Description:
This protein is mainly alpha-helical. Helix content is 64%, strand content 2%. The protein folds into 3 domains: 227 residues, MFS general substrate transporter like domains (Growth Hormone, Chain: A, Up-down Bundle); 58 residues, no CATH class; 205 residues, Growth Hormone, Chain: A.
Amino acid sequence: MAFSDLLEQVGSTGRFQVVHVTLLSMPILMMASHNLLQNFVAAVPPHHCAPHANISMSSMSARDVLQATVPLGTNGKLERCRRYAHPQWQLLSSNSSEILWEEGVEEIEMQSCEDGWYYNTTEMSSTIITEWDLVCDQRALKQMSQTTYMGGVLVGAVLFGGLSDRFGRRVLLLISNLMMAVGGTCAAFSTSFTMFCIFRVCCGMALSGLVLNSFSLIVEWIPTRVRTVVGTGTGYCYTTGQLILAAVAYCIRDWRWLTLAVSLPFYVSFLYSWWFLESARWLVLTKRSEQAVKNLKTVARINGRHAEADKINLEMLQESMKKEKACSKGSYSALDLLRTSSMRTITVCLSAVWFSTSFAYYGLSMDLQKFGVSIYLIQIIFGAVDIPAKILVTISMSMLGRRPSQCGALVLAGVIILINLLVPYDLQVLRTSLAVIGKGCLAASFNCCYLYSGELYPTVIRQNGMGWVSMMARFGAMVAPMVLLLGEDFPWLPGFIYGGAPILSGIFAFFLPETLAQPLPDTIQDVDDRGFAWKKAKRLPEKEDLSKKDPSCVLLKESV
Length: 560
């Protein structure tokens, strides 16, 4: 009997799994709110220099004051970062304004916004931009706030990946929920931009812990046959979260209250996370079989299988995990991701897939103001496109397999982004439509690679593996805003890079093994046994002595 058979015995799709997966999926609803929060709390409202402080506004209209103090740019709108060093009252004359413009307004002495800025707060009553004047010379700090957040996600992927393999999924999930709740609350009440960034880093780290441990607890308590459906369901929770964010942001226009609103639900998830049972697979492989037996008995009773619960004992569990326990002797680290040729291939290819998916995804999603329509509307459209995209990729993963689905989603996304470069800027609707389709393909790629990666990495280093690829994804998200800076000199270059990266990683994905209808690997030896399609074609028909591949793992002849 294998562990999967034991899971079927206690009920693999019963009441426990339904409640377990549902509760683990609830925090995922709010993850999108933190990932994409920047679009709203850091929205840049229309702004221009404030008039000189010594000007009396009582004797003239605000329009006259602006005309005399703030010049017009080449686009006919008030300049954002400069004003006249001295009020130009002569410009209030209709003739003088035209004459001075023809002679050259640039000859008039200018200065920066010495008395601050005036912001149009029609759409957002307050953002971190208006709070700390992150405009003009300080405009780069807007991107820094998102970069530091993604830096926290990157650090969390490394930190929580290793810690959860050592201390368990449940403990780290509790810590992550509390960290997200407290970090978000403190960020909402920050008194400086530096403090805001520090607590956003904490939120980023917590998000990695939530993603990694929630996914592992879900996958390790469900059977192979429903992993695709469950994986897609949790993906839809993130999609729904994007729609929730648009609705919450529309109702709450102040950045502090908005940040607090998307953080408070994590206090609730922290409280009910104490109910979760630790992964029985992890408990057995870390020599805590007695607790694993207790957890399996609990699952059986919750699922209404009391007779089966009484049959489960330590001997039965050890027999079902004989091979896995024999191969899991010793400690594991991130270095084991490169231990064998099979693991090296998986790690390198998945690194490329995760990096490019996240890189292109956040390149498209994190600057909604560039589309020229309401940021609330475009957020809903960007979120809604995930629904058909994930339905299609779920069908594809179940019928065609994980590998062709992953390759197809990446290559199609890259091609659409490159095609968008050829569309004239005047055709804004067409450009936006193509961007939405490209974003849908990248969302499908994300949905696929979360499930695919969990099936490729074995249980003993699954958290290390998921932590590593998640780190690569966050690195891609950090790099994405920097690429936009290249567009100042070469407008076509950011789109070319955003489109080329997914196509290249789609080629890498072709070299991954197929996992459709395959049992979840528990050890590195399981991964080596499974092998790769093109390698299997070259193998001799006779059996190999698999124990020679890994001297630390001596298998019984019958288990081979």
